[in-house]
Design brief:
Number of strands: 18
Largest sheet: 8 strands, mixed
Structural class: alpha/beta
CATH superfamily of the largest domain: NAD(P)-binding Rossmann-like Domain
CATH topology of the largest domain: Rossmann fold
CATH architecture of the largest domain: 3-Layer(aba) Sandwich
Length: about 600
Amino acid sequence: MATPLSDTPLSPLKTIAVVGLGTMGTGIAEVLARAGREVIGIDISEAQAAKAVAALESSTARAAERGRITERERGDVLARFRTFTDLQSAADADLVIEVTPESYEIKQQVFRELDGIVRPETVLATGTNALSVTRLAADSARPERVLGLHFFNPAPAMKLVEIVSSVLTAPQAVAAVTDLAIELGKEPVAVGDRPGFVADGLLFGYLNQAAAMYEAKYASREDIDAAMRLGCGLPMGPLALLDLIGVDTARTVLEAMYAASHDRLHAPAPILRQLSEAGLTGRKSGRGFYTYEAPGSATVVRDALTPLSDGPTVPGRGVRSVGVAGSGTMASGIAEVFAKAGYEVVLAARSEEKAQAAKARIGKSLSRSVDKGRMTVEAAAETLDRIAPAGSYDAFADVDLALEAVAEDLEVKRQLFATFDKVCKPGAILATTTSSLPVVACARATSRPQDVIGMHFFNPAPAMKLVEVVRTVLTADDVHATVRELCTAVRKHPVDCGDRAGFIVNALLFPYLNNAVKMVQEHYASLDEIDAAMRLGGGYPMGPFELLDVVGLDVSLAIERVLHREFRDPGLAPAPLLEHLVAAGCLGRKTGRGFREYAKR
């Protein structure tokens, strides 16, 4: 009878076979060889194996040129990487990592063959990000030695490795692979077996919603991608990322997630099937959501959907002076943005005292810019002089643009727009900075709904480059053209979107945050594991729980409720854990406790 793996001490994982030498397999092989492991690269295609060797030669040559390794070290790395076309070459491996196409049939065939080749104590790892590790393990002669080892692309650069255990996996196998990941300079996160695991489980739902948003013609591909890069600090927009991952691969991952969750948010958007079946799979085919210079190229080229670079066809209105209503951080930030760009600004609040306090806050912000060498003392003084504080909205009588940044309360905003309607001169543009409320409801509070538009700035307004320009079905073309020109004039990037809950950024961001809360609620992974996975594996500047505590759990819950009410999708219902924390007064950093506790200021 075979000895159970749990009773067998594992030898160090020194010789490692990598089965499948595509982009990911080649990257994993490079990481292993550079870390001193003997690497057996296996691919049924001799051409693919040769391509992997050439890729390693090229990457190590660049490293040597930059002085990161010596020529002798480069020679040692290359000598440690040998390629074969037969699985029999894995016979002496301590660990086998399969990185074959996302297909149960292919992966199960590989594992069945390996059962008859490798030693009893050899650990077998699958690089899948979509398929069930348990199902693959159950089909193996030794299921206790099978686990998931999910690297992220590009493997040499990305720090995250998800180590996936099934209910059958022996602790010794997990421990050995975890130690290996640490020795490779990676940050391992232990997760259970469910489609997408942590990082892809959150990432692909977000990508799917972005594809559906584009398919609905709500916003252009360029605006969706720019919004998420500039509004969330992401390295790539979702549609460009889908092209990089492969539209067909994304569809496979989502199919597996939907089969497990039956959550409509994971049901692949029809456009993913249409592009996949047409062979438009992204960069690798030369065309997906975007068109590329050649298959495999990262260079986007103009196609029939590329926006024209010409200016607006409709002439805009002249804007010399701007009125900003409000005294909070957003209002003072927007006033600073316009004043820096040379506009005369009236900063009005409910009292003269509040308006003066808001101007003082701007003065401190400008002083910080001077201290950091971003502007001169003279420029800061001139900027502050352009801002006139006022204790009444009557001061907006002569402004060309009146913009509100008051509380996110529809009745408060409607009353303010009714005041704008009485006070502002004919032809003045009336704008709201709302992030979640219907702009048209503000417009209907006036006698001139054609002059009303949304200008959703992001906090902190002086630093964040994005403005979502939200036109209603009643907004005049020249108002829309004027606001886009204004955004450019104040050095912001405008993106167009329609008047529906969440616009672009919040409609994509908050379901992702909500799904992260559900993961914790279901005890699938910890706060720290999820935050680490999304920072290291998804390129997010902050993990979801770090971000929720910064934004405020009450603010997040309010936005999620608006999204759920608007779209009526059960998958958008706020996670009960979030509701419970808000009910308990745990609102994030501002109260000293949210998902984490913070030192009192």
